[in-house]
Write a structure and sequence with these properties.
heterodimer, A: 291 residues, Rossmann fold, B: alpha/beta, binds adenosine-5'-triphosphate, binds magnesium ion
Chain lengths: 291, 298
């Protein structure tokens, strides 16, 4: 059956009339089933475009897309699209004016499900996203964070096998963040593929919230190319300078341990999370006191 | 006069008329739409000259609703707002008020309406009577500051990335140099470099006769920038005080669905791991200096 997503030698630009160079260049990415992948990179580096390509919204200029092993063509694109769900960076692009329930029902009705089935899916979705108090509200009368959550819920209701999230945390606080991470975790456990675009590596890669979920891989984009593709650990064992050269903010533990290593104690190891940093600092204190 | 903004007993309701109920839930009891219809309930607040004040709280707390009151976009239904001593209801000319208080929307798409980046950024300052030469000059300065070529002015606004849109929206406000900057999630979706640039710019911009009101869900940013914060929850101010008091109070943050800043998590973990006497630090530089001291003492 092949990986959930495979992009091969892919090039993309938005319009053939523009003289600008490719927005995405030479992209080769495989995303496996049950894999949780975080994508990061500078503003304008092509993250949202990449998600839209995977969502089969735009055809590539060159290169191939395989979804669950099938090379995408005009015939199978509609079937393939049903298995993919994208939560847009801007929830307003996604929400059609109506009530929250209507929004959740929209895709399900189009898919021809029975009213009973639709009702039970909506109830389940409302439950896991915790938006019960919003269901009768109009989507254009919600706060920024509430909109983000409803946009996510409307994609979840479609039960995609490949879930693409474009900065779903950008306007929300910790309670909702934890809820979304829980949803991601359940998805991944169920063998589905989740791709998350985020500037906040810490939340995305997630020791911050004491959540057991850790991204399997992170992909860093730079000017439309894949600059890094590897495990979070292999990224974080590099020094803060490398991570910053990719336009990213290293997690606080990496930043601080790099600084200590550079300016105070050359033997101080680079720590990827706060717990190990504290452990190292406790050691430092003990050592210094014994002297 | 010390106060630039004073808010007294402000309440606001969107009067949501919500009866377009879906067939799937029509026979359920009506949700709490009506009881909750007050987005702001009896807000009292002041912003002084020279301050950067944070307004934080969970989604739906009323932050954006409050901010839109500060430049006359929403008029008080109950209570009053004074900007520079004058009531927004009847003592301010509305155009002057918008020039005095620059508001950055939470969603840049609600703000951007011109087709080209250059027109978008020049719109407000030209409208407020700045000369075209002055506008062009500061426009170039801001573009350079954020690392864009001058040709960026010819880009179509609706074809920008999320972060690019936010920077354009921000430039279109800061360019006419309002006295008060009211910013709703200015760094959401910015990459770390742009975020850093924006924060530095705000630090330099604020001076003894200006002020910044900042809404952000990023508590490290609030800790670093703000001298004072208000916590809003359910339309009310539930807590107010110096940033280093409120943002080091784990229980208070948790009660209001807010993140504990990264640096505070580090502080709290050290405190319970044998560093009882560690003092509060607001920035990583303070922390590194403390480690250096620790090392030198030993
Ligand atoms: N509809 C469009 N037409 C033409 N160019 C576009 C369009 N959308 C985005 N671009 C350009 O393509 C590049 C990549 O944009 P994209 O939205 O993929 O970036 P991103 O990595 O998601 O950035 P951000 O972090 O700011 O959201 C940018 O230079 C952007 O200006
Ligand atoms: N146009 C509107 N019509 C009716 N109700 C609204 C409207 N805009 C917001 N509300 C409601 O008013 C309350 C306050 O919303 P507001 O946008 O001020 O919250 P917020 O604190 O900015 O939240 P967030 O952090 O999610 O942006 C929420 O319950 C929201 O659903
Ligand atoms: Mg984007
Ligand atoms: Mg808001």
């Amino acid at each position: 059956m092949g990986p959930a997503v495979k992009l091969k030698d892919l090039y993309f630009k938005y319009s053939i009339h523009t003289d600008r160079s490719f927005i995405l260049q030479n992209i080769n990415i495989e995303l496996n089933r049950g894999e949780y992948v975080v994508i990061a990179g500078r503003n304008g580096s092509g993250k949202s475009t990449l998600l839209k390509i995977i969502d089969l919204i735009y055809p590539p200029e060159r290169g191939d897309i395989y979804i669950f092993g099938n090379l995408i063509n005009e015939k199978n694109i509609y079937e393939a699209r049903k298995r993919i769900g994208l939560v847009f960076q801007n929830p307003d692009t996604q929400l059609i004016t109506g009530t929250v329930v209507d929004e959740l029902a929209f895709g399900l009705e189009n898919a021809g499900l029975s009213p009973n089935k639709i009702k039970s899916i909506i109830e389940e979705t409302v439950e896991i996203t915790g938006i019960k108090s919003l269901i009768d509200r109009r989507t254009d009368e919600l706060s920024g964070g509430e909109k983000q959550l409803v946009a996510l819920a409307s994609v979840l209701a479609m039960k995609p096998d490949i879930l693409l999230l474009d900065e779903p945390f950008s306007m929300i606080n910790v309670i909702y963040k934890e809820r979304i991470l829980k949803i991601i975790e359940n998805f991944v456990r169920g063998g589905k593929t989740v791709v998350l675009v985020s500037h906040n590596l810490e939340t995305a890669l997630n020791e911050a919230l004491n959540n057991s979920l850790m991204a399997d891989r992170c992909i860093i984009m730079q000017s439309g190319r894949v600059e890094f593709d590897g495990t979070p650990a292999s990224l974080f064992e590099r020094k803060a300078e490398y991570i910053e050269s990719l336009g990213l903010r290293a997690p606080i533990a990496v930043r601080i341990s790099s600084e200590i290593n550079k300016n105070i104690d050359r033997n101080f190891p680079i720590c990827s999370d706060i717990k190990s940093l504290v452990k190292q600092l406790t050691g430092l204190k003990g050592k210094e006191l014994k002297k | 006069m010390k106060e630039l903004i004073k808010i007294k007993d402000l309440s606001y309701s969107y009067n949501s008329q919500n009866d377009s109920r879906s067939i799937y839930f029509r026979n359920k009891e009506k949700s709490s739409v009506l009881n909750n219809s007050f987005a702001l309930k009896g807000i009292n607040m002041h912003i002084d000259r020279g301050e950067i004040v944070g307004i934080i709280g969970p989604s739906g707390a009323g932050k954006s609703t409050l901010l839109q009151h500060l430049n006359g976009l929403i008029m008080p239904q109950q209570g009053s707002i004074y900007i520079d001593g004058k009531s927004v209801i009847d003592e301010w000319d509305q155009k002057e008020l918008k020039k005095f208080v620059g508001l950055l929307f939470q969603n840049p798409e609600d703000q951007i309406f011109e087709k080209f980046v250059g027109d978008e950024i020049a719109f407000a300052p030209l409208n407020f009577g700045f000369s075209i030469d002055d506008v062009r000059k500061s426009f170039k300065d801001f573009l350079e500051y954020f690392g864009y070529e001058y040709s960026f002015k010819d880009r179509l606004t609706y074809k920008l990335s999320g972060g690019e849109k936010r920077i354009v929206a921000f430039m279109s406000i800061i360019i006419y140099d309002p006295r008060v900057l009211v910013l709703d999630e200015p760094t959401a979706s910015l990459d770390s470099e742009n975020r850093e640039k924006l924060i530095k710019l705000l630090e330099d911009w604020v001076s003894s006769d200006r002020a910044v009101v900042l809404v952000s869900h990023d508590m490290d940013e609030i800790l670093r920038l703000c001298n004072r914060v208000y916590i809003l929850n359910g339309g009310r101010v539930v807590s107010e005080g110096p940033t280093e008091n409120l943002l080091f109070d784990e229980a208070l943050l948790e009660d209001n669905g807010l993140d504990v800043p990264e640096i505070v998590r580090l502080y709290l973990m050290l405190k319970t791991s044998g560093f009882e006497k560690i003092k509060k630090f607001k920035t990583e530089t303070d922390f590194i200096n403390w480690i250096r001291e620790l090392k030198n003492h030993a």
